[in-house]
Structures are given as C-alpha cells and as structure tokens.
C-alpha cells in the first residue's frame, strides 16, 4: 500500500511497471512452480484483461470499478490451481485499473484487495454456488476498501457510495457467474482441468465408471481403495486431493476389456492365466495401460486424467510373469520385455496413485495384517520404488514421502482393523 501511495503521489504509469514486474518474475519465480502455466497462456489472458477493461471503461463508458479483477483472479485460481500466480496477475489487473483511473489509489488498491480475497476463497472449491458467494463477498470487500480510502480523503457517506456498492457487488457476482459459464472453454483452450470438472468426472453414473462397475467389479473395488489411500496421502502433503481421487477412479479403466485376467476379478479362484505362456500373459497385463489410454481418449477425458492411466505403473516389471519366464528360459534376457512402457510418474499426484496402486494390491496378500506388518510392507514398497528410480521425475521430497508413507499406514490400519468377536444370539431363532 505504501508503494502504491508513492506511485500515486508522483503520478507514475502503473501498467508498464506491472508488465515489467511480471516479465521479471516469470522466468525467476513462476517457472519454478510445478505445473506452472505456459507464458503464452498468461499473455493471452493479459491481452484479454486489457481488451475487456478498455472496452468497459472507454467504449461502454462504465466505471473503472467494473474492471473484472475479481473474475480474472478467480479464473486463474481455478484453471491453474496456483494462488501465487493469481496474485501476480491480480497486481497486473489492479495496475491496469490505476492507469485507466489516472492514478486513483482507491481503484487500484480496492481491485487488488477484491482479487486477493477471491483467490483465497475460490481455491479448490468443489461447489459452483460457492464461487458465486466468493464473487459476492469479494465485491463487497472491494467496496469497503475503496470506501475506507475515499473516507481518508474527507468524503462523507453519500449516494456515490451506494452507487459504488452496487457496482462492486454486481461486478463481483456477475464475474463469478461468467467464469462458471466460460470455464469449460478455457479448460479446453489451456488443456487443464478444474475441480468443478473433476466433480463431474467422479459421478459413477458416467459411462466409463458404470462400465467398470458392471464388467470389472473387483477392479472397481480396488480403484475405490486406491482412491481413498491416495486422497488421504495427497491431503497430507498439500497436493490436489480431488484430482488424485478422480485419477484413481480411472487409472485401471483398461481392465474392462479382459477383466477375468486380473486377479481381483477372478471368479471362484479360477486363474485365467493357467495354461498360458508367460509371454502371452504379459501382453494381456501390459495392454491394459494402452487400452485404457485409448478408451479414455475415445471418451474425451482430460489429458491430466489420461496421465494417471499411462503412468500408474511407471517402468516397473510385471514381476510374476517375468520370474515365470526366467524359470522356463533361464539363459534368456527378458527384463525389458516385461516392463511397462511408462513414463514414470511426472507429478506428485501421479506418484501417489502409482504407490497406492501397488500398496493396495500387496495389502491383500498379507495373511495377518497387523500394524507392524502393514508398516513394514508400506515402507518396503516406497523404498523399493525410490531405489528403482521410479520417483525421480515427480519432484517429491523425502519429507513428503515420509508423510505419504505415514498416511498409507494409517489408512490401511483403519481398513484392516480387528473386530470384536460378539457372542452369538442363541435366542434369535426361538
């Protein structure tokens, strides 16, 4: 605020300053953020903000308080899931407002204040109405900040203040409504997915999930447990828990083509691989990733969801059939043939599902799932995947890996909790 007041005193042009600041900060700060948006995407949004602001103020003759700083802050927060980037962009739009208002401090500070609040309120929201409420509250906050600055200049409460209240609240609310309506277009343009779209994908009445439930019920149950494990771990390290949950729902969707060849779908303990050569069994197992990706593309799933399908096995070995092949042909080198095509997990969210998938499957093999055995199994899996280099490309730290491990252990202990042997009700049938 002090910096803004100094600029106000000397009537400096704010917009070039804001653009220069963004150009300096992007290569030194923003690009270091995981999943940061492309610079061209931000330039497109900046051009849109400038064009829209000039259109509202100069062509329509509306108040400078109608500049949609709240709308752009909300849009960037939803699209890129990055509050820091939203705040930098809000500074840019607020500086634009200062320029158009010819250095009116109340305009710039209030626009930035409203954008600041809505960035926090709209971060990882899961309900559309909450966005409208966030827009309304941000507009009200914008008015209060402008009123406080104007009162400092000696203004009394007047009709102008009521008119300003109307403008700010309406601008904030309408911006939220427009963002909700236009969000699918921006998701398509920038190839991202928001929490609102993720909630739609989590509906089990959607064709792909419905097919998984009906054709591969064992895989469906496995996916639910992986989703629960993954969501808890994501929350422990501050990752996108909703993205992780939905990615886990779809990660094994390729198994619907040959469900009976996967152990969780075996009917009557009948092994469908009995009598098959290891090379053929290996192809069936490996193909569920490729077929899952193709099926997801046919249903136009977002690339971020497809990444969970493609990366949930990384470059690991199909161990069972690899060792079976080695036993049959000990002098042959089979290892590369029995590896999943990858790539390795590229994000923290993908790495969490990658680990949870293996851990959930191995947890079913524990004869006596005591807390000690569960903890030993989880730590062994995490350590092994780390030493194999499967986690090299996902930016997980040792501290985060420990939090993920603790979360998996806690969740599995809750799943495999012991039950009390209740006495039988001998009088029930009397």
What does this 3D model show about the protein?
This protein is mainly alpha-helical and 430 residues long. It folds into two domains: 2-190, no CATH class; 195-415, Hypothetical protein af1432 (Orthogonal Bundle). It is built from 18 helices and no strands. The model is unreliable at 1-12 (pLDDT under 50).
Which CATH architecture of the largest domain would you pick?
A: Orthogonal Bundle
- Number of H/I helices: 18
Question: What is the CATH C-level name of the largest domain?
Answer: Mainly Alpha
CATH topology of the largest domain: Hypothetical protein af1432
Mean pLDDT: 85
- Structural domain count: 2
Keywords:
18 helices; 430 residues; disordered N terminus; mainly alpha; single chain; elongated
Write the layout of secondary structure elements.
Layout: H1 2-10, H2 14-28, H3 39-59, H4 69-80, H5 83-100, H6 105-121, H7 128-152, H8 159-190, H9 195-201, H10 207-215, H11 217-237, H12 241-250, H13 278-298, H14 303-311, H15 319-328, H16 348-363, H17 371-387, H18 398-415
Helix pairs in contact: 2-5, 3-5, 4-5, 4-6, 4-8, 5-6, 6-7, 7-8, 10-11, 11-12, 11-16, 11-18, 12-14, 12-16, 13-14, 13-15, 16-17, 17-18
Could you give a short description of this structure?
The chain is an all-alpha fold. The protein is built from 18 helices and no strands.
């Amino acid at each position: 605020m002090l910096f803004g007041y100094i600029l106000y005193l000397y009537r400096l042009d704010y917009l070039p300053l804001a653009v220069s600041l963004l150009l300096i900060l992007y290569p030194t700060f923003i690009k270091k953020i995981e999943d940061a948006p492309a610079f061209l995407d931000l330039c497109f949004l900046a051009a849109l903000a400038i064009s829209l602001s000039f259109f509202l103020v100069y062509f329509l003759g509306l108040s400078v308080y109608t500049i949609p700083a709240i709308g752009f802050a909300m849009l960037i927060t939803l699209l890129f899931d990055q509050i820091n980037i939203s705040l930098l962009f809000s500074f840019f739009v607020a500086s634009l407002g200062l320029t158009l208002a010819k250095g009116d401090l109340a305009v710039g500070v209030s626009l930035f204040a409203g954008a600041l609040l809505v960035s926090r309120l709209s971060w990882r929201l899961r309900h559309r109405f909450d966005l409208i409420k966030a827009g309304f509250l941000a507009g009200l906050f914008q008015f209060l900040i402008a009123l406080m600055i104007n009162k400092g200049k000696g203004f009394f409460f007047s009709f102008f203040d009521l008119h300003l209240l109307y403008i700010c609240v309406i601008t904030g609310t309408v911006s939220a409504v427009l963002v909700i309506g236009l969000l699918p277009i921006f998701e398509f343009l920038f190839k991202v997915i928001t929490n609102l779209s993720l909630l739609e994908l989590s509906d089990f009445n959607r064709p792909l999930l419905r097919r998984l439930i009906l054709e591969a019920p064992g895989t469906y149950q496995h996916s639910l447990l992986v989703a629960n494990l993954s969501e808890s771990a994501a929350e422990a390290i501050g990752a996108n828990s909703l993205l992780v949950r939905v990615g886990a729902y779809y990660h094994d969707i390729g198994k619907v083509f040959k469900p009976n060849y996967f152990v969780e779908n075996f009917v009557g303990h009948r092994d469908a691989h009995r009598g098959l050569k290891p090379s053929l069994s290996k192809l069936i197992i490996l193909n569920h990733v490729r077929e899952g990706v193709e099926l997801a593309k046919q249903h136009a799933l977002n690339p971020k969801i497809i990444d969970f399908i493609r990366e949930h096995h990384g470059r690991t070995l199909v161990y069972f059939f690899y060792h079976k092949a080695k036993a049959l042909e000990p002098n042959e080198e089979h290892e590369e043939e029995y590896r999943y095509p990858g790539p390795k997990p590229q994000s923290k969210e993908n790495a969490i599902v990658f680990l949870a998938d293996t851990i959930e499957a191995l947890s079913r093999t524990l004869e006596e799932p005591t807390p000690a055995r569960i903890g030993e199994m989880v730590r062994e899996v995490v350590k092994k995947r780390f030493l194999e280099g499967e986690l090299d490309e996902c930016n997980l730290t040792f501290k985060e890996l420990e939090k993920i491990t603790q979360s998996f252990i806690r969740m599995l202990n809750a799943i495999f909790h012991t039950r009390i042997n209740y006495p039988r009700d001998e009088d029930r049938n009397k």
